[in-house]
Amino acid sequence: MHSQPDVRLIEMIFPDAANHYGTLFGGNALALMAKAAFVAATRHAGTSVVMARSERIDFATPVRVGDMLELSARVIRTGRSSMTVEVSGFADGIGDPAPRAALSGQFEMVAVDAAGRPQRLARNKYNEGQTQ
User: Fold this and answer.
1) What percent of the chain shows pLDDT beyond 70?
2) How many CB atoms lie within 10 A of CB 44?
3) Which residue from 61, 58, 56 is spatially nearest to 107, judged by alpha carbons?
4) Domains of the chain: residue spans and CATH
5) Whole-prediction pTM value?
6) What sequence ranges are listed for the domain HotDog ACOT-type (predicted)?
7) CA 104/CA 33 separation, integer angstroms
8) Is 76:101 a contact under the CB 8 Å cutoff?
9) CA-to-CA distance for 74 and 6, rounded, in angstroms?
10) In the beta sheet, which residues pair with residue 49?
C-alpha cells in the first residue's frame, strides 16, 4: 500500500489579493485552499473531481501582503466516490522568526465522469488498499 503524499502549494501574497487592511482577503484564501484541495483530490482519484462542500474554515492569524503562504493538502478519508481533503496553511513573512499557522479547513470532493455524475474511485498508486 502506498501512502498519500501531501500536496504543497506556495503563494506569495500580493496587494491584489488583499483587503483594505493589507491582509489576505477571505475569499481569496478560500480560493487558494480550494485549489490545494482540488490538486490533492485529483491526484488521489486519478480522474476529474468537483467540490461538494467546504467545512469549518478557520482563520487563525492574518496573512499580510508580502507573506509567503504555504498550503498543505491531503486526503484524510476516501469513500465510494468522495474524498475528504484537509488543508492547512502557514504564513511566513520576511523577518518572521518562524512560519505561523494561519488557516485550516476541510473540503469534500467528488470524483465525476465526463457528464459530471459521481463515479466510483478507481484504485491507483495513491489509494491502493483503502476502503472504497
Assistant:
1) 89
2) 26
3) 56
4) 8-111 (3.10.129.10)
5) 0.88
6) 3-115
7) 8
8) no
9) 5
10) 111
